[in-house]
Design goal:
The complex is a heterodimer of chains A (159) and B (713). Chain A has six helices and five strands, in the order ββαβββααααα. Chain A is of the alpha+beta class and 159 residues long. Chain A has a five-stranded mixed β-sheet. In chain A, helix 3 packs across helix 6. The relative contact order of chain A is 0.16. In chain B, helix 16 crosses helix 17. In chain B, the strands form seven sheets. In chain B, strands 3-5-1-12-9-10-11 form a seven-stranded mixed β-sheet, sandwiched between helices. In chain B, 27% of the residues lie in helices and 24% in strands. Chain B is α+β, with helices and mostly antiparallel strands and 713 residues long. Chain B folds into three domains: 186 residues, Aldehyde oxidase/xanthine dehydrogenase, a/b hammerhead (Aldehyde Oxidoreductase, domain 3, Alpha-Beta Complex), CATH 3.90.1170; 317 residues, Aldehyde Oxidoreductase, domain 4; 101 residues, Aldehyde oxidase/xanthine dehydrogenase, molybdopterin binding domain (Aldehyde Oxidoreductase, domain 4, 2-Layer Sandwich), CATH 3.30.365.10. Classes of the chains: A alpha+beta (159), B alpha+beta (713). At the A-B interface, helix 3, helix 4, helix 5 and helix 6 of A face helix 1 and helix 16 of B.
C-alpha cells in the first residue's frame, strides 16, 4: 500500500499522508481552505459539495481521499475566474438563479460539467443534469433558464 | 451611474459572491483558538433523568449542563414565552432535548466522547399525536388538559341558530403533517468574546431575538450580548426562534471555557432535532341550505405544538384568522387549540399557521362543491371576500380584492374550464384549483404596540448606509431594500450599502418574519430616504424613524376583534396532473399561479419567490412525509425525507396583478409566505379528481394513495 495520496486540485499538486478514508470534502475545505465546496447533507444526496473529478461531476462528501489518488479535481475556486466559470456565474446572477446561495457553487459545477459535454442542452437535459443538486429556495426554474442563458451567451466557449 | 428606479431590472447584490463560493457561512468561518461543540440530547420522549454519567474527559474537553448556569442566571430561553429550557434538568420532555454541550478541539474525539456519555432515565409514556394529548396519554404534559393555548372568534348569527335552519350538514376532518424546513445550510453558530462581550456569529433570521432569548442565562441584559448575522443559507422560519436553542448552550459554555466555540449541526441532527411545521387537525361542520349554499361554518382547529409553547400561540392565532380562507361566510365560529405533546417543539415555518387552515378550508369547499355538482372554482368564487367584507375577526377588508381577475388569468392560461368539464372524475387526469391569502406583518396593531420597529439611514459623502436589524436569508431583502432606498433617494443602487446586521450597530427593526420586512421595514426606510433626499445638501447625517400604524383600524388583542391585517397578499393556483392508475405515480403536467403582492419591488426576485414557494408547497402536499413513532422522527436524512428535485415538477407559468397597497413602499405588500399558501390544495384537488377519491390528509405520496381510494369507496 502506498503511504501517500497524490492528486491535483485546481491545477495544484496535493499530497496527503493520513487516513485514506478521510472524506475528500474535509481535505478540500479544512486543509486547502476551499470553502466554496459546501456541505449540505454529508451523504451524497444534496449536491452542495459537487466538484468535478476527472471530468465527471461527483459529490465530495462521500469520496474517501484515497479514491482521489492520481485524479484531477476542479472546485468552484478553480473555475470562477476562467471564461467558462465567469460565463456561468454571470448568467446565474443575471438570470435570478441565486437566492440563499448555499447550493449555488455546486449548481455552477453541475452546469459546468453539463455544458462541457452538451453545448446546446434542452430544458430536459438541464433538469436531468442538476437533478442531483437540491435547491430549497428557487423551485429550479430560474436556475434552469440561467443555465440555458450560459449556453447561449457562451456560444463558442463551449465548443 | 443613473438613479435606480423601482421598475428597473437589476441583479441581486449578493448573487456574485454566492455563485463564486466566496460568501462566508458560519461553517466557513474560523477563529484562532476556536474549539467545537456538540449537543448531547435526550434519547427518550418523556421521563425523569436518573443520572448523567460522563467519562473522564481529556484535557481541553468540557461537558456543560444546567449546573453550569451561574446563580444570577435562569435556565430558560426567552422566545415569545419563557418555557423552553436551555438544558433539560430533572426530566426530559421530548427526543432531542438538549441535556448538555460537549466542547473540545477535535471533532472526531468529540464524537467518540459523546457516545460514552450515558444518561439513565426512568421512562414515562409519551403523548405524541394530537389525539394522544387530548386523551391525556401518560398524564398531562401542560396544565390539566394539555391545551397550552386557545382562542376563538365568531361572526354573524349564533351557531345553534344557523344549524337549526340548515337543510343539511357537511362534516369532515382535515389533517396536515409535520414539515421540515431543509434549509440547505444547517443550523450553526459561533460564540466568542470580543472586547469582553459575548459575541455570536450566527445563521439566523432575527439577531435581536437571539440576544433577548439567551441573555438571562447569565443574568445579563440583551444589550450586553452582540449578535452578528452571517450569510444565511435558507431559513423559511426554521431560523426564527430555533437559533436560540444553539446560542443558549454556547453562551453558557463560553462563559466557562472563555474560548471561541463553533456548533454546526450535521444534516441528521437538523432533520431529527430541529423545529418543524405544526401538524394540524381541523374539524369543519358546515350548515347548508337545499341548494348547497353555505349558511355557516363551525370550525375546531388543533395544532400539535410539541413540548414547549415557543411561538405556538401566535402561530395558532394566524391559523384561526385564516380558517375561512378568502371567503365571506355569513356566520362562523372558529376555535383554536394548541396541544402539548412529547415531540420536538413545533415552530415557525413559512406561512406561520396559515397553510394548515387554508388547506382545510380549500379542500372542504371543494368537497361540498362536488357533492352538489358545482365546479369548485365557480362555487368558491361566489364567496370571495371583497373590499369592505367582514372578516372572521369582525374587522373589514380594507383593500380591493382582485381574485376574479386573478382566476381569469390562470383559468385562461391553463384552459381550466374546458379541462374541468372534460376530465372525468376518476379518469386518471385531473385539474385542481385553490385560492388563498396571507395577512401581511404582525396581527392588528402589534407592529406599533409590540414591535416598534426602527430603521436608520446614514449618509457619508455620496454613499448611504442602511442600518436595520432585518436579515437577508435568501429571499432577496438586501436587494429589495437597497432598491427602495435608491429609488426614493434618486441615486444609483451601487451607492447604497446594507451590511448584515450587527446588534451593537443597528436599531431593532423587529424580526425578519411574518412577511413584514418589505411592507413595514421597507416603508420606514423609504420614509427615511425621502427625508434624507430633502436634506441631501446638509452634509453627513443620519435619519432614524419608527413605524407608525395607520389610524382608524382598531384591534383588540384580548378578544381578537378588529382589523387583523391591513394588507393581505392574495393568490390563486391551478395544478394539472395525470395519475398512473396501476402504480399511483402522479405526474404534474402544469402549474399556473397568480399573486397580488401589491407592487413587485423587483420582479425577478418575486419570480424566484413564487417558484420556490409553490414548489415547497407542492412538496408539502405530495412527498414530504415526516413520521413520528413514540416521539422519534423516522426520517433522518435527505434520502428518506425527500424534497422536490428539478425533475419532479414542470416549469411554472406565473402572473401578478397590480394592486398597490396604500401604506407600503411603492405599494408593496408582503409576499414571502403567501406563495407557499395554496399550491398544496390545488395539487390535492387535482389528484382527487384524477382518482375519484376524497383526500383529507396531506402529504399524499403515491404509497398512501391506495388508502385514500379505499376510504372513498
Amino acid at each position: 500500500m502506498r503511504d501517500k495520496v497524490v492528486f491535483h486540485v485546481n491545477g495544484k499538486r496535493v499530497e496527503f499522508e493520513g487516513n485514506p478514508m478521510t472524506r475528500l470534502i474535509d481535505i478540500l475545505r479544512d486543509d486547502l481552505g476551499l470553502t466554496g465546496v459546501k456541505e449540505g447533507c454529508g451523504e451524497g444526496e444534496c449536491g452542495a459539495c459537487s466538484i468535478i473529478k476527472d471530468g465527471k461531476l461527483v459529490t465530495s462528501c462521500i469520496i474517501p481521499v484515497g479514491a482521489a489518488d492520481g485524479s484531477e479535481i476542479l472546485t468552484i475556486e478553480g473555475i470562477k475566474d476562467t471564461p467558462k466559470g465567469i460565463c456561468i456565474t454571470e448568467a446565474f446572477r443575471d438570470g435570478g438563479a441565486v437566492q440563499c446561495g448555499f447550493c449555488i457553487p455546486g449548481m455552477v459545477m453541475a452546469a459546468y460539467a453539463l455544458l462541457e459535454e452538451n453545448h446546446h442542452p434542452t430544458e430536459e437535459d438541464i433538469r436531468m443534469a442538476i437533478s442531483g443538486n437540491i435547491c430549497r429556495c428557487t423551485g429550479y426554474d430560474l436556475i434552469v433558464s440561467s443555465v440555458q442563458l450560459a449556453a447561449e451567451r457562451g456560444g463558442e466557449l463551449w465548443q | 451611474m443613473s438613479a435606480t428606479k423601482i421598475d428597473d431590472r437589476i441583479v441581486r447584490v449578493d448573487a456574485m459572491e454566492k455563485a463564486r463560493g466566496e460568501a462566508l457561512y458560519v461553517s466557513d468561518i474560523k477563529f484562532p483558538g476556536m474549539i467545537y461543540g456538540t449537543l448531547v440530547r435526550s434519547s427518550i420522549a418523556r421521563g425523569k433523568i436518573i443520572s448523567i454519567n460522563v467519562p473522564d474527559l481529556p484535557e481541553g474537553y468540557s461537558f456543560i449542563t444546567a449546573d453550569d448556569i451561574p446563580e444570577e442566571g435562569r435556565n430558560e430561553l426567552w422566545m415569545i414565552a419563557k418555557d423552553w429550557r436551555c438544558f433539560a434538568s430533572g426530566d426530559v420532555k421530548y427526543v432531542g432535548e438538549t441535556i448538555g454541550i460537549l466542547c473540545g478541539p477535535d471533532r472526531n474525539m468529540l464524537s467518540y466522547l459523546k457516545e460514552r456519555i450515558k444518561v439513565e432515565y426512568e421512562e414515562e409514556v409519551p403523548a405524541v399525536t394530537i389525539d394522544d394529548a387530548l386523551s391525556l396519554k401518560g398524564g398531562p404534559i401542560a396544565g390539566e388538559d394539555n391545551i397550552m393555548c386557545s382562542l376563538y372568534c365568531e361572526k354573524g348569527e349564533k351557531m345553534d341558530d344557523v344549524f337549526r335552519k340548515a337543510d343539511s350538514i357537511f362534516e369532515e376532518t382535515l389533517e396536515t403533517g409535520f414539515q421540515e424546513h431543509v434549509h440547505l445550510e444547517t443550523n450553526s453558530a459561533i460564540v466568542r468574546l470580543e472586547d469582553g462581550r459575548f459575541t455570536f456569529y450566527i445563521s439566523a433570521q432575527c439577531p435581536f431575538y437571539v440576544r433577548k432569548s439567551v441573555a438571562g442565562l447569565l443574568g445579563l441584559r440583551p444589550e450586553d450580548i452582540v449578535v452578528k448575522q452571517t450569510t444565511t443559507g435558507g431559513a423559511f422560519g426554521g431560523k426564527e426562534h430555533f437559533p436560540d436553542v444553539l446560542a443558549g448552550p454556547l453562551l453558557v459554555a463560553c462563559n466557562k471555557i472563555r474560548k471561541p466555540i463553533k456548533l454546526v449541526f450535521e444534516r441528521e441532527e437538523d432533520m431529527l432535532y430541529s423545529v418543524k411545521r405544526h401538524p394540524s387537525k381541523v374539524l369543519f361542520k358546515t350548515a347548508l341550505d337545499k341548494e348547497g349554499n353555505i349558511l355557516g361554518i363551525d370550525g375546531k382547529i388543533y395544532y400539535n405544538c410539541g413540548a414547549y409553547l415557543s411561538a405556538s400561540y401566535v402561530v395558532l392565532q394566524r391559523g384561526v384568522f385564516h380558517a375561512n380562507g378568502v371567503y365571506d361566510i355569513p356566520s362562523t365560529h372558529l376555535v383554536g387549540y394548541g396541544v402539548a405533546t412529547n415531540t420536538f417543539p413545533s415552530d415557525a415555518f413559512r406561512g406561520f399557521g396559515a397553510p394548515q387552515t387554508l388547506f382545510a378550508i380549500e379542500m372542504h369547499l371543494s368537497h361540498i362543491a362536488r357533492k352538489f355538482g358545482f365546479d369548485p372554482a365557480e362555487y368558491k368564487s361566489r364567496y370571495f371576500l371583497k373590499k369592505g367584507s367582514e372578516t372572521v375577526t369582525n374587522g373589514h377588508i380594507v383593500e380591493d380584492v382582485k381574485l376574479p381577475e386573478m382566476f381569469r388569468q390562470i383559468a385562461d392560461a391553463s384552459d381550466y374550464e374546458r379541462k374541468s368539464k372534460e376530465y372525468e372524475i376518476g379518469s386518471g387526469k385531473g385539474i385542481g384549483i385553490s385560492f388563498y391569502n396571507h395577512g401581511g406583518a404582525f396581527t392588528g396593531n402589534g407592529e406599533q404596540a409590540i414591535i416598534k420597529a426602527h430603521a436608520r439611514l446614514v449618509k457619508t459623502g455620496d454613499r448611504v448606509r442602511i442600518e436595520v436589524g432585518s436579515t437577508e436569508m435568501g429571499q432577496g431583502f438586501q436587494t429589495a431594500l437597497r432598491k427602495i432606498a435608491a429609488n426614493a433617494l434618486e441615486i444609483d443602487i451601487s451607492r447604497v450599502d446594507y451590511p448584515n446586521p450587527d446588534t451593537s450597530r443597528v436599531p431593532d427593526s423587529g424580526p425578519t418574519a411574518a412577511s413584514r420586512s418589505t411592507m413595514v421595514v421597507g416603508k420606514i426606510v423609504e420614509d427615511c430616504a425621502l427625508e434624507m433626499k430633502a436634506r441631501w445638501d446638509e452634509g453627513d447625517f443620519s435619519v432614524e424613524k419608527e413605524y407608525v400604524h395607520p389610524d382608524g383600524h382598531p384591534w383588540d388583542q384580548d378578544t381578537f376583534r378588529g382589523d387583523a391585517y391591513l394588507g393581505y397578499g392574495w393568490g390563486a393556483c391551478i395544478v394539472e396532473v395525470e395519475v398512473d392508475k396501476l402504480t399511483n405515480e402522479v405526474t404534474t403536467k402544469g402549474i399556473w399561479s397568480s399573486h397580488d403582492v401589491g407592487k413587485a419591488i423587483d420582479e425577478l426576485i418575486v419570480h424566484g419567490q413564487v417558484n420556490g414557494g409553490v414548489i415547497q408547497s407542492l412538496g408539502y402536499a405530495s412527498m414530504e412525509k415526516m413520521e413520528n413513532r413514540n416521539g422519534h422522527f423516522r426520517q433522518s436524512s435527505m434520502s428518506d425525507y425527500v424534497v422536490p428535485t428539478s425533475m419532479d415538477f414542470p416549469k411554472q407559468e406565473w402572473f401578478l396583478v397590480d394592486n398597490p397597497y396604500q401604506w407600503g413602499p411603492q405599494g408593496a405588500k408582503g409576499m414571502g409566505e403567501l406563495v407557499f399558501n395554496g399550491a398544496d390544495a390545488a395539487y390535492t384537488d387535482a389528484v382527487e379528481r384524477a382518482l375519484g377519491a376524497t383526500i383529507c390528509k396531506i402529504p399524499i405520496p403515491p404509497e398512501d394513495i391506495e388508502e385514500a381510494i379505499d376510504n372513498a369507496r
